[in-house]
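We modelled the chain as a single entity of 229 amino acids. Its sequence is:
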Amino acid sequence: MYFQIAGSNVRIGGTMHCVPRGKPLAHWVHDAIAITWARVIYLEHDKYESDRGLFAPPGSPPLAQFFALTADVLDLIPLDEGVEQLAMARSRAIPPSGPRLEFLETATQVNTLLDGVADAVWDEAVCWSLEHPGSSKQLLELSYQAWIDGDFEEIDQISSLHSRNRFPPIKNALISARNCRWLPIIRELAHSATEPTLVLVGVAHIGGSEGLLSKLAAGGLKLHALVDQ
């Protein structure tokens, strides 16, 4: 799940934001964020900015309640940090200066998309989550194995069955609309980046008919897999 855009200085990788406790990151991750290559790393958005939106006070709208619920459920699953944390650590630790971090969007832009989903859909999503308390653990374990296997199309299927992405308006806001926002940025980087540039996005954004790989290919860009795992 690590690709070179042909004829450019840009590589793109599909990440896990967190992994099951004690499980290793996919082998390609350490190559992708190696000292000798990436000088610029694009992440989805600033994690610290988005983390501030995880805590929903009483009386919050359904969207905020849902994300607070999701955070509570995930907190019960033993986790280790994922790819983005490693990228941020490398940016700080490598002398004389690590890779420069950039972002494809702001957390506010994400929340604006999600706030556009009807309250009735969020109500349904919250009810589904409460009725399937093991879904977060199942999602994490299945997604992790597919990620290690390099099967991004399987992850698209897993995400559509075992996460809030099973609700089309939510999947559109979380995945499709954001991919559409990122596409012109990535295309421009493919044509203009003068430094080795790595784009890291959640692996759910990679596969499927609305995924970045098919959309970039449809726009005339060729992508070559660098590593199988």
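As a brief sanity check on the tokenised model: The longest strand covers residues 10-15. The chain has ten helices and eight strands.
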